[in-house]
């Protein structure tokens, strides 16, 4: 039997509109379930504790990003797999594991596949897959800055420039490495425990005949006078992967675009001269300064058959 | 060139220090390292190191292959190949199996090349070929 934890407010009260169809679909797939409505996300731990006994198949989260985060944090110590039935298109974790609609999610419950996802921790808060730290102003702040009469009188109001939204950040990785820059955004991803057997990092280096070695910025394209070569695959056993659990991507704006730096660590401490929100999906879970750890703990997620939980959409736009 | 998707993969072990980023400390990894910003400390990898044109490194480097288009202050030890490109400058001692310094590249320090005798393919000396030729010609005459 599955335990359905339903947030009726999610997706602009979408559950109310689709409840009948959902029940019909569940009956069609002969899925035994218990529906429990969440009145307040703060009550999720108590709700889980009181409703867990007859549940053996897993917990199904019906809601948005906030609901998913609340249930993950409440069920960390339980050994039950989690499934996500998204109530909105912005359900980040559902999208990242290949679930595009609530109908697909219900169908998945009939024949699920499981994927172990590593957990990360910020203070007492657990997270899965990826979090972001951004200095981006919200739309209202941008609008007010643009239309502020005093700034317009002084002639400095206007659309954002390349130097805007940069925050001086300092990142400490495992007490071994410190990185500092003016960043626009940071993305912290959890690395899987191991790379699939037999795989090795693809090795391609850009060598410029003009001696310019540009940053491997995804927006850069190789020019015709450059030689792109791919040395042969490394000899077996000659290159092992790093075991660092967290991958951090710094987005640093520049005149030519955005530069991306990639670093790895087990524990990151991030400090900034202005408070920056730490978000998972679209939910803010903390503010800088913050310490982020990659854990050996895992949570089991149900994923659609055949997807193997591979990322189906890029995490950043 | 790596695609956006490849960089998005959380299992990509490469390290990139972009322009405008300053890093200090010990960087030890199994993947490739590319530096276009500033790095000070110790750099150890089983992969390759690429120092971009804007890169500044104040560290000793130990890697499989090293390509330098920026500035390095420190010793460089490349197990295989070391290339100092046109805009590259190295202020330190270097050691490698193969070395390329392009026109414009600067090296201020000593260079040690590793012995590659064991890896050289065997080449037959010419006098043996000539002797073999002579022998076959004499046989032809006898016949």
UniProtKB/TrEMBL annotation, chain A:
Residues 1-125 form the DAGKc domain. Residues 188-243 are annotated as: Disordered. Gene3D superfamilies: Probable inorganic polyphosphate/atp-NAD kinase, domain 1. It comes from the Bacteria. SUPFAM superfamilies: NAD kinase/diacylglycerol kinase-like. InterPro entries: ATP-NAD_kinase_N, Diacylglycerol_kinase_cat_dom, NAD/diacylglycerol_kinase_sf. Residues 216-228 have a biased composition (Basic and acidic residues). Pfam families: DAGK_cat. Transmembrane segments: none annotated. One of its GO terms (molecular function) is kinase activity. This is DAGKc domain-containing protein. It comes from candidate division Kazan bacterium.
UniProtKB/TrEMBL annotation, chain B:
It holds the Pfam family Bactofilin. It comes from the Bacteria. It comes from candidate division Kazan bacterium. PANTHER family: HYPOTHETICAL CYTOSOLIC PROTEIN, POLYMER-FORMING CYTOSKELETAL PROTEIN. Belongs to the bactofilin family. This is Polymer-forming cytoskeletal protein. Residues 130-143 have a biased composition (Basic and acidic residues). The lineage of its organism: Bacteria, Bacteria division Kazan-3B-28. Residues 109-143 are annotated as: Disordered.
